[in-house]
Amino acid sequence: MSEFERAVAHEFGPRAGAILTDLVLTGVGDRTANEALEAGVPARDVWLAVCEEMDVPPERRYGVGRLEPRRR
């Protein structure tokens, strides 16, 4: 969860809270991010659904939120 929270804060800044509570995500059953997380949807799936809905470029979807990104 902490990686998810860092990723959302990093990508969306001051809008992060509103995105988690107000944006309805089709990728997780037409729920908000917070609703999906409360329903047990894995944080990674919620993050990818947020990215898809908000048109986050693929290069910014993976590894964000990790304290030390994975090496390739």
Written description of the protein model:
The protein is mostly helical and 72 residues long. It has one domain (2-60). Helix content is 49%, strand content 6%. It has helices spanning 2-12, 16-22, 33-38, 43-53, and strands at 24-25, 31-32. It has a two-stranded antiparallel ribbon with strand order 1-2. This is Signal transduction histidine kinase. InterPro entries: DUF3046.
Classify the beta-strand content into a percent band.
Answer: 5-15%
Instruction: Name the strands of the widest sheet in spatial order.
Output: 1-2
Q: Which structural class matches the secondary elements?
A: mainly alpha
Number of helices: 4
**Poorly predicted runs of 5 or more residues:** none
- Molecular shape: globular
Radius of gyration over all CA atoms, rounded: 11 Å
| N-end to C-end Cα span | 23 Å
Mean pLDDT: 89
What share of residues is helical? Answer: 40-55%
Main beta-sheet strand count, sense and barrel state? 2 strands, antiparallel
Protein name: Signal transduction histidine kinase
Organism: Microbacterium immunditiarum
InterPro entries: DUF3046 (IPR021408)
Pfam families: DUF3046
